[in-house]
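Journal club side-thread
Mid-discussion, someone asked how the predicted structure for our own chain would compare to the paper's figures. Pasting it here so we can look after the session.
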Amino acid sequence: MKISVYAIFILFLFSFQVTLLHSLNPFGIQPDLCLVIACLVGFRTGQVRGVLVGFCLGFFQDVFSAGPFGLNTFTKAGVGFLAGVFAKNLANRASYAAFVPIVACSVLSAIVLLLWSRMGMGLGEIFHGFFSILLPQAILDGLVAIVANWVIIRWLVEAPSA
């Protein structure tokens, strides 16, 4: 039952990101929901589930995109694992505590993707891409993660008192 719920959620999330979220991009950037969810699953449930969900989300991104096959799969699995490691070492898992680990994971993932896809770029172009695209997207990913983590804590973890 849990596997089928995860599969349906992954398909819905990926479809939402490539259809609706593609047209909503403030300042030319859009959050990577697959990365945010992989990080949040790792952050909330541990490294193993973070790796599994990140692997599945990255695999769907690789299958349905024109990028190099396997790169999203392993970066999303890696950030799911890293978020689980961050969470294991945190004393507080409040909604705002997910911001720094997810921004760090987003920056690492984006640097790997940037360097892989832009092998012939100069150092100036890499710095320009980092400060104009990667860093704002990482901050947006962190803000989306704060909201999503707050929703998880408030509505899914805490049972409503009756």
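Post-session note: The helical segments are 2-23, 33-45, 47-63, 71-88, 99-117, 123-157.
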